[in-house]
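Sequence in, structure out.
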Amino acid sequence: MKKDFTLRALQAIQTLSRPHGATIEELRARLEYTSSKSIYNIIEKLRELGYKVESRPDPDGPTSQKKWYIKNAEPKWFQKEMYGLTGTERLLISLSLQHLKLFRNSDLAEDIEKLRLKLRGWAADSREDDKHDVYVLLKQKKSLQHLRNHIPFLLSAIRDRKVCTVAYAEHEMEDLRTFDIHPLTLTEYDNDLYLTAAIPETNREIRVLDLDRIVSLQESNGFFRIPAGYNPRRHFASSFGIGTGELAEYKILFKKSAAPQVRNRNWGKDQSIEDREDGSIRLCFYASGRQEIKRWILGFGPDAIVMKPEDLRREIEEDLRKTLETYDSAGSV
């Protein structure tokens, strides 16, 4: 398997930062390179990034053999710039630190904890009393502890391009189906974790699987290639959220009270907003993910009215009638 250059650079930093450094042969084995030239290219790239990489004679090896070291694992620009972070920059670090918990049970756990300790003083969630300019509120943040076995397993399968077999609850949790998958990307969205995978039995159709619906997961036989042209950014480019599917045009009228929540956000492709005299707005956009859009609209209650598609308007009207019937039949429970 051809490793990503960035991953190899990180592995080189880890190896060269050891007190005893590493020989070129040790780096070749660690980074899984066949050519010494590739190792020297990595070293030059690290130097360009500001890392001070030096070589010294190897006291335990042949006369001509050298060992390579990183004198300081943090380049000077990093040390200097970290002290001048703005509140916005510290907010970004805080959000990143919160998301790192997804990988605490992977082989990156030790490095993640070191990173957290280094960055915590500059992050917006620092507990120091003199930092009040930015605060990250993480109430109702979903715990992913129940996925502690799935996450490292999938990260390994994605990295090694291993075919997996999954038992998946399609719609109802009792509706269990078992099939092979080619795991491509883990995606965090709206406090949930999803897997984008190619499905061999349907001509490698790309699907998005909710990790909460994966009942069991195991390795299957063989390896796979990433589908030609696959890119997660392009795959989700037209989606309203995590759901994909047919692209459709949506027109929604929002009352004045809901307008501030809708303005200045990107909801879909070719978006436009029409201001009306009474303070209401009409939002138009194209997107896939009909069910997510429907739930989003329902969340506004009487402050949102679907104008297009017409069948979605009728569907929401029917849902609202059923909701009233449910309340009427429940009485004063």
